[in-house]
Amino acid sequence: MLSKQLIQRLSTKSLASKNSVRAIQHTRKLATPSAPQGMATTVDAGSGPLSAPKDLDNKAIIAPLDSFGFNITAERKSTDPRRPIYLDAQATTPLDPRVLDKMLPWFTNQYGNPHSRTHVYGWESQDGVEEARAHIAGLIGADAKDIIFTSGATEANNMSIKGVARFNKNRKKHIITTQTEHKCVLDSCRQMQEEGFDVTYLPVQTNGLVSLEELEKAIRPDTSIVSIMAVNNEIGVIQPLKEIGQLLRKYKGIHFHTDAAQALGKIPMSVQDMNIDLMSLSGHKIYGPKGVGALYVRRRPRVRIDPLFSGGGQERGLRSGTVPAPLAIGFGEACRIGKLEMQNDHDRISVLRQRLLDGIIGKLDHVNLNGSETATYPGCTNLSFAFVEGESLLMALNDVALSSGSACTSASLEPSYVLRALGADDTMAHSSLRFGISRFTTEAEIDLVVNKIVGVVNKLRDMSPLWEMVQEGIDLRTVEWSG
Ligand SMILES: Cc1ncc(COP(=O)(O)O)c(C=O)c1O
């Protein structure tokens, strides 16, 4: 078990008392390197003065891991005790301390290559990885053998689209996806166009959902794969996967892929009920570690893909390369916890979202909720603030870690392509904020953010000549602007 103090420090950043210096009492069952079979050898890793945390608010998060007799410390990079409130859970979720606890031994004593077949180091890592695989499968109603570990959802999406298209290239030349997919899906499709495939980028309705009629119209005899995401990373809308799966079942030989990076552990999903053939998953969107993900690849009936990598033939020959056991095991633990706590998380996050919406929409006019109000994951809420410039808004909100869209595109000043696909005009697409609420977000944080947003939007609007005109009752649509 992770020590109580460490859990507290990891999860309650602001509660930690200043300048408190306390050694972590940490007793862990560790194997010594010389006694690998001695997993029960108890090494007291924490009695005695370990290199103790220094200033809780300032620098120290210290995990005493005395592998080989070294104390390993991890100091926070930031020396600012007042970190911004984190509301960017779609970019990444904080690592659940329970996941970290599960991972730690696999970084230190149990470091075997899970593909080593000749000794206990390998066997125990393999067991850990297989247990993790079962937890991941359990969260999506799959068989453990159908789970292929990857470096993340980007790789899984590339594997699915390129892999299926290339495998079937002699008979099928058509791919269907939507205009609001994650960049890595869209870019994989563009790459396939360069290789001679046709791609249909389906438009979405103003609520962000695909129309089943449009989808059916786009299907061709040579369509090999349909890729439609589960939960959108910018606006949180949930696509009707079950209905899409039912529709595609009618057409033999079309593979249904879904990018479920933002859906795993957030909403119930079943590859069987939804007739999904390939599903991309990511560790760091479900309170697990970064750098690991998975692809569900159906075995019955068997889905065949061209692998992206050549190499040792690990992971059913579909993904060569050593499985990073500590990360995979952390991902598995995150899924185990996710399964147990999904409903509870969802209920809590729904309440927090409502509090956020009531607070903001109750106090500000001309705020638009982007995407469907009902088919949505409450932990991802996207609002546009009319008469406010998005970049100024983000800059003024420097004590809240928020994004105006996906982490991958927020570096560009281009308005979000997702919001434009919904029909938002450029100014509304420019003035949007995505609120990512996580398992660890608190009511107090939501209240602080509401106050901050209301204050900043009012201030920016007070400086805007457009806002002044609106206040004077001028309908801006009737104004003829000189060029
Ligand atoms: C919907 C979606 N797909 C794919 C990805 C990429 O995931 P990863 O970081 O695991 O490669 C993300 C991450 O932002 C995402 O939100």
Task: Give a written overview of the molecule.
The chain has 483 residues and is of the alpha/beta class. The protein has two domains: 100-337, 3-Layer(aba) Sandwich (Aspartate Aminotransferase, domain 2), CATH 3.40.640; 342-469, Aspartate Aminotransferase, domain 1 (Alpha-Beta Complex). Helices cover 34% and strands 12% of the residues. The chain is built from 13 helices and 16 strands. It has helices at 4-11, 97-107, 120-139, 153-167, 183-194, 212-218, 241-249, 325-363, 390-396, 417-421, 426-430, 443-462, 465-471; strands at residues 28-29, 42-43, 60-61, 74-75, 85-86, 147-150, 174-178, 198-202, 223-227, 255-259, 278-282, 293-297, 367-369, 380-385, 400-401, 432-436. The strands form five sheets. A seven-stranded mixed β-sheet has the order 6-12-11-10-9-7-8, with helices on both faces. α5 (183-194) links the parallel β7 (174-178) and β8 (198-202). α8 (325-363) crosses α12. The longest helix is centred in the C-terminal third of the chain and has 39 residues, at 325-363. It is globular. It starts with a helix and ends in a 12-residue tail after the last helix. The model is unreliable at 1-62 and 406-411 (pLDDT under 50). Pyridoxal-5'-phosphate (PLP) is lined by residues 90, 152-154, 182, 184, 229, 233, 259, 261-262, 282, 293, 406-407.
Summary tags:
483 residues; alpha/beta; Aspartate Aminotransferase, domain 2; Aspartate Aminotransferase, domain 1; three-stranded antiparallel β-sheet; 13 helices; 16 strands; binds pyridoxal-5'-phosphate; iron-sulfur
